[in-house]
Predict the 3D structure of the following.
Amino acid sequence: MQTTLILLKPDTVQRSLIWKVIARLERKGLKINGLKMMQLDDAIINEHYDFLMDKPFFPMLKEYMTSCPVVALAVSGENAISVVRTVAGATNPQEAQPGTIRGDFGMTIDANIMHASDSEDTAKVELQRFFKGQDVFEYSKISDDTL
Ligand code: IDP
Ligand code: MG
């Protein structure tokens, strides 16, 4: 069982797509262990996207990611890290397959609906970054045995 970190980005909040994206994750059979709205600041974006800091689009990415609150989710399931990446689709929504979240809801790479951790190591770091070990709940669901 893995837990991964998802951020529903500002375009998802602005376009009233929060529930639609969460519904996709639940429909897939992933379990929501944590869910909170957060206003990100420059410091957390500098940390979260430090590997992109020298890219020309970084200032715009930072402005966009801090433009309104995001929704952070801790989501679990078997192989949840790669399953969520698959359900999310390619980084560029124009290239993402139909049926994926980005493929169905997005058109621009700078507003691509959601972030999802890409490995066990990053998931661990990112869950700590956004949840600080708080408000992530381990619990059983009636459907756990039948999913
Ligand atoms: P990912 O979100 O699919 O993991 P990454 O390569 O980790 O993709 O990039 C992080 C984020 O940086 C992307 O989700 C997107 O918002 C932004 N980004 C990546 N490449 C570009 C680009 O070429 N132009 C604008 N934004 C980009
Ligand atoms: Mg990434």
